[in-house]
Design a protein that fits this description.
Blueprint (H helix, E strand, L loop, with lengths): L2 H7 L8 H27 L4 H15 L13 H25 L6 H28 L2 E6 L2 H14 L4 E7 L11 E4 L4 H7 L4 E4 L13 H8 L6 E4 H9 L13 H4 L8 H34 L4 E7 L5 E7 L24 H9 L6 H6 L4 E3 L6 H10 L12 E3 L1 H6 L5 H17 L2 H13 L15 H4 L6
Parallel strand pairs: 1-2, 1-4, 2-3, 4-5, 8-9
Antiparallel strand pairs: 6-7
Helix pairs in contact: 1-7, 2-3, 2-4, 2-5, 3-4, 4-5, 4-17
Length: 478
């Protein structure tokens, strides 16, 4: 009898699942510990138990906001870190105000000690959580074809997902030579594999249903062999969304949109979204009006051409509109009338234009499009009609991004930079569909905040994209 088989026949020994350990460390380390330390210190300097409880509740709630958006907090590092730092300060400030009102003021030293203690706990807790994520390994087995498992393992390594280890793949009968992962067995051996290899997470690869000779499918096998085991199962598409913040458009079909059509799906309400857009656009427009005027003057003095650039774009539900931008290219950039992708280092971009693009100042006139209701502050970037028709022929999911209004900034712009090609457009589409599914006012606020903190990052930078199978589907297997 093999070692794996012997382990499978032993009585089931319960161990703490790594996924639970990671979730608990995220709650206690960077969120609960700072709130608790701040509450204890405030309580020591006040005579009301209410103050400490309020500090704890408010601090924990604010620090948890980035986890409630549907967007992975690790992919919003600036916004998440700022919320974590600000959370105990907000709780302590509330206690100080209540103390002043109730004639039980907190002394300045107590406020200072509370803030310092909370930030110290935050630094230690965040460091501990990071260490736990790297040390506590989640052992992953892919149910599906070997190529998919190999690509998934490579993607985890390239992105730097800490603590997830793809052990091998389950199903099929043969193993291609040269692969670094091993075949763990068939679905009939699922219980032995999970126990013997200590698998924590089963990932079901879409389109690769390794049906056994007796007709047992993946879900039949999991229900038969694994319901009493501390193993979890997730679809590969769901795993990508949860960890990597995008939808692998090459592996989804029409069933993916069932979530959006489900009765419990709640899109962002139109009126609050519109009020949010108007408020933010007005504040930014007024604040940056002098900058806009100086930029327009610089463009005019450079070559005497127009400062503003108008171009047809496709908006929500396929309705075209005219977008406004500060001109960053030569006047004759498309003298032949043929649309061209703008590439990094494009020689059509003027010296002033490079600076405007680098700082995103060229996007400021689009605030008028937001006020007119043609665009929103956060959403997919609008594309030119000539390019949209061509892209939709290649990527059948592309038109779904038009379910929402286009935005000045967005999840795809933040994560992907500039498209610059059809594959780059598919890579951004992966993030646009994710945004359509997870959009919210809270998410929009954090995306705007993250964008503001990384304003000077080059929007036209070239970033890596995943294996082609995740972008264009089965044809990429080659």
């Amino acid at each position: 009898m093999s070692p794996d088989a012997r382990r499978a026949t032993r009585p089931l020994r319960r161990r703490v699942p790594p996924l639970s350990v990671r979730r608990t460390s995220d709650l206690i380390g960077p969120r609960m510990a700072p709130a608790l330390v701040a509450a204890v210190i405030v309580e020591a300097y006040s005579s009301s138990l209410t103050f400490g409880a309020l500090v704890f509740a408010l601090s924990l709630s604010i620090s948890s906001l980035s986890r409630r958006t549907g967007f992975p907090a690790a992919l919003l590092p600036a916004a998440s870190t700022t919320l974590s730092i600000a959370a105990p300060v907000a709780g302590i400030a509330l206690a100080a105000v209540l103390g002043a009102i109730s004639n039980d003021p907190l002394p300045p030293s107590g406020i200072g000690y509370a803030v310092a203690g909370a930030w110290t706990a935050l630094a230690l807790g965040a460091s501990a959580h990071t260490a736990i994520e790297r040390l506590v390994r989640v052992r992953v087995a892919v149910i599906g074809a070997q190529p998919f498992a190999e690509d998934l393992a490579s993607e985890f390594e390239a992105v730097g997902v800490p603590g997830y280890e793809v052990v091998g793949w389950i199903g099929g009968r043969t193993q291609a030579s040269g692969g670094r992962l091993e075949r763990l067995g068939s679905l009939r051996e699922l219980r032995r594999i999970v126990l013997g290899r200590q698998i924590d997470l089963l990932v079901y690869a879409p389109g690769d249903d390794p049906e056994e000779p007796e007709g047992r499918t993946v879900f039949d096998a999991v229900a038969t062999f694994c319901l009493d085991l501390p193993v979890r199962m997730i679809g590969a598409n769901q795993l990508y969304e949860a960890l990597l913040g995008h939808v692998p458009v090459g592996t989804i079909d029409g069933a993916w949109y069932g979530y959006i059509m489900h009765p419990s799906f709640r899109p962002t309400p139109r009126l609050p979204k519109r009020c949010f857009d108007l408020a933010v656009a007005t504040v930014i427009g007024v604040a940056f009006l002098p900058v806009l005027l100086l930029a327009a003057l610089a463009i005019k003095l450079t070559d005497g051409g127009p400062a503003l650039y108008r171009q047809r774009r496709v908006g929500a539900h396929g309705v075209e509109f005219e977008i406004l931008k500060l001109r960053t290219m030569r006047v004759d950039a498309e003298a032949d009338g043929a649309p061209r992708w703008c590439a990094p280092g494009d020689d059509r971009v003027t010296a002033v234009g490079r600076l405007l693009r680098r700082t995103h100042i060229d996007e400021l006139p689009q605030l008028w499009n937001v006020i007119r209701g043609e665009m929103t502050m956060v959403g997919p970037r609008p594309e030119r009609p000539e390019l949209v028709a061509e892209i939709e022929r290649q990527f059948r999911h592309y038109g779904r991004r038009h379910l929402v209004k286009p935005g000045i900034t967005g999840w795809a712009q933040l994560r992907c930079g500039y498209a610059g090609s059809h594959l780059g457009t598919a890579w951004k589409l992966c993030h646009d569909l994710y945004y359509v599914k997870h959009s919210s006012l809270l998410g929009d606020s954090l995306i705007l905040f993250e964008t503001a903190l990384v304003t000077f990052r080059d929007a036209h930078r070239s970033l890596r994209s995943p294996a082609k199978r995740f972008l264009v589907g089965e044809e990429a297997r080659g």
